[in-house]
What we know:
The structure holds 2 protein chains of 2 kinds. By secondary structure, chain A is mainly α. Chain A has helices at about 1-30, 35-40, 45-55, 65-75, 90-95, 95-125, 130-145, 145-160, 175-210, 210-220, 225-250, 255-260, 265-275, 280-305. Chain A has 14 helices and no strands. The longest helix of chain B is centred in the first third of the chain and has 28 residues, at about 1-30. At the A-B interface, helix 2, helix 8 and helix 13 of A face helix 5, helix 6 and helix 13 of B.
Amino acid sequence: MLAYVVRRLGLMVLTLFGVSIAIFLLLRIMPGNIADILFDSAGMVDPADKAKIVSELGLDRSLPIQYAHWIGSMLRGDLGYSYLSEKPVIEEILPRIPITARLAGLALLFAVCTGVPLGVISAVKQNTWLDYILRLISLSGLSLPSFWLGLLILMAFVHYFGSIPIYERAPSSFGAMVAMLAVPAAAVGFRSSALIMRLTRSSMLEVLRQDYVRTARSKGVSERAVTFDHALRNAVLPVITTIGIETAFLFGGLIVTETVFNIPGVARFLVEAIRWRDYPMVQTLVMFIAVVVVVVNLLVDLAYMLIDPRIRYGE
Amino acid sequence: MAFLGHVLRQVSFSILIVTLGLCSSADQSFAQKTGGILKVYERDSPTHLSILEETTISVDFPAMPIFNNLVAFDPGVKQNTLQSIVPELADSWSWDSTSTSLTFKLHPGVKWHDGVPFTAADVKCTWDLLANKAKDKLRINAHASWWTNVDSVSTEGDLQATFHLKRRQPALLAFFAAGMAPVYPCHVSPAEMRQHPIGTGPFKFVEYKPNEVITLARNPDYWKPGKPYLDGIQYTVMPNRSTAILAFVSGQFDMTFPNEITIPLLGDIQKQVPSAICEITPTHDAPNVLISHKPPFDKPELRRAIALTIDRQAFIDTLGSGKGDIGTAMLPGPEGVWAMPKEMMEKLPGYNPDIAKNREEARALMRQLGYGPDHHLSVKLSAKNIPSNRDPGTLLIDQLKQIYIDAEMDLVETALWLPTLVRGNYVLGIELVGDALDDPDQTFYEDYSCGSAMNHAKYCNPKVDQMINEESMEADQQKRRQMTWAIDSQIQEDIGRPILWHERKATCWWPRVKGLNLFVNSQYNSWRMENVWLDR
C-alpha cells in the first residue's frame, strides 16, 4: 500500500513536470504577448516602450532560460508577479481558490446527493412512469448548456423574486456564502447530477441482475438491504470514478457558471489571464488545476480500496 | 445658404442644450440628499486605474471620480465646447499676448487623498511625465500626442503654473478639460498610480479586486464644500452583459455602464423597467474602412469605388436598429460641434443619398480598371475578432460585391490586431475609431496626421497636415469651423479612412439617481460624479 502511494506520488511529479512543459510551450506558441495586448488596449504602439516592457518582463530571453527561471522560482515557492496587476501571483490567486472550491464543493454535493439516490430509484423502478420522468430529467441535465440554464434561472429570479443570485461582495458568513452559491452550484451541478444519475442507474441495473442479488432475495433479505447493502455498494465503483472526474472538471471548468453568475473564481480569472497573456498567472493556475486533478485521481484510487475490500494495490 | 442653415441648426441645438442644462441645474439645486452607495457595473476588469496610461472608458469611468483636472467641462451643460469650460483645480486661466503661454492660477488649500498638499509642482510633474521628461516613466504614454505642442511647464510659487507652447493652439484648453487629462501627484510613482491611484477628487480609491469590484469612498476633505453627496461608488466587474442587464433590471445596480446598451437591448430594458431613465447619445466611436496603399489599392479610382459602394444607412438600420448617424471624420450634428453641413457632406464621394447612382459610378470606375462581372477582384478584409468589428465587416463584404470585389473575412485575434495594423499586414480592414474629445485638433492630429501612432490607416497628405496646423492655430471659432470642414472634405476626397457610420448607444439609470448629466459629444468626460446623489 505504502509502496503504491509512493509510486503514485512519483508519477504525480512526472505528470506535473510534463504539464509544466506543455503549458509553458503552449502559451509561447499562442500569437502575441502581453505587450501587444496592452498597446492594443491603448490603440497605439511606441516600439521603444514596447521593447522596454518586453525586456522588463524577461520575454526577450530564450525559452529554456525563461522556463528554467520559472521552474526554479516555483520550486523555491516564488510564483512570480502578475504582468498585469504587478502584484505577486500568490496574492492574486489565493483569494480565488476558496471561492471556486466552495462552488465546486457545493455543486458536487448537489450532484452526489441528487444523482446517486435518483439513479438508484430509477433503476429500482425501471420502466415505470417515475423512471421515465427521472430519465427525462437526466437527459435534460446532459443536454441543456449551462450558460443557457444559468440565464434562464436568472431571468426566473428577476421575474418571480425581483432580484438575482449573483456574486457582488464576499459573503460575511458561512450561511450567506451557502445562500449565495446555492443557485449557481445547483445550475452547474445539474449536469454532473444527470451524469451520475444515469451512470448509477445503468450500473445498478447491471448489478441487480447478478446471481448474488437473486440469492440474497431468495434468502429473504429485505429489498432495502438488497438495494443498498448488496447492489449499491458494488454499483458505486464506476460512479466514484465519475465523481473524481467531475471534481477535477468542476475546479477548472466553471468558466461559464462563474461568468453568468459573476463569481470571481479561478476559472474566470484563468480565462482573463489567458486573454492578457499573463504567463506567470496562467502557468500557476494551470499547475494548480493539474495538482487538483492528479490528487483527486489518487484519492479516487484509494477510495476504491476502502469501498471494495477485494481491491488491493501493489500486492 | 448651406452655412446659414447649419448655423441656424447649431443655434437651435444650443438653445435646447442650454435649456436642458438649466433644467439639470435646477434639478441639482434643490434638496440633494447625502449618503448612499451608488452601485454600477463595470463591463471589463481593467488592467489598472491609471487614466494617463489608458484610452478605454473601462478605466476612465471608475477612475475619473478619484481625480481633478485643471479645468473641466461644465457638468451642467450637455455639449462640450471651449465655451463650456469651467475652473476646477485652476481658479482661472489666461493666455499671454502671443497666445503661446497659458497660465493657470491654482486653487489654494487643495490636498491629495494622502494629505500631501497639491501645488503647482504637481502640475509640472504631470506634464513632464506626459512629455517623457520625468525620471519615472509611464508604462504606456497613451495621450502623448495631445501634448506635443507643449514645450515646457514653469511654476511660480505653489499656486501658479504656466504652459509654454511651441506655437499657438487655442483649443489646447479643451484637452486640459478632458476626463483623460487629470493632474497626478509628484510624490506617487506611475507604478503606484496604476494600483493605488491618489487624486484630489471627490472620491478616494479604496480597493480594486480584479474581476470582482472597484470601490471608491467619499473624500471627506474634498476641497469643494458640501460635495460629493454619495458615500461611495461600487463598480462591480461584470463582463457578461446579459447578467449585468438582468441585475440592473432587478434593481441591484443603480445605473448601467456608459453607452453599453444597444438599441435592441434598450427596448428590453424599457419594457421591463418603464421608469428607467435612458439617454441615447453618440458613442463617438465610428467603424471605418482601412484601405492599404498596396497595389491595386494605390489606384485612386479603386479607392474611390470602395467609398462609392458604401451604403451607410444600411449599416445604421442593420447594426444600429435605425439609430446612428451618417458623418465624416468629425462627430455629426446636432451633438457634434464641428460637423459639416449636410449639403456639403452629400457632395463627398459615397455620401450622396442616391446609392444606386453612386454604385453605378463605382462600377464604371471598376470597369476602367479592368474589373467587371466576369473578372472580380479578390481580397481579404481583416477585422479584429470581436463583434463590433466583425459585424460591420460582414455587411461591407456584401456591399463590396456590388462593385465586383469579392472580399473574404480574415479574423485576427486581439493580441495580433495592433501588430497587424502597425506592420500594415492588411489589404482592407475594419477598425473602430473613437475620440475622447469633440475637437478637430484631437481628431485630426490623432487619426489623420502623417506619422501619428493612432493613424492606423497610415493616411498621409502633407497638404492636409499643413491645413491642420493652420486650423489648430486659428482663434476665431467660425473661421476654424470653415477650416475644419475643408480638412474633413479633403480627407474624404482622398478616401483616407471612409467612415461607415457613427454609433449611438444608451445609458440607463433608475429614477432614484439624481444629478447625472451625460455629455452628448463625448462619453469620456461625464464621470466626476460629485453632483450625483441618491433619492432612496
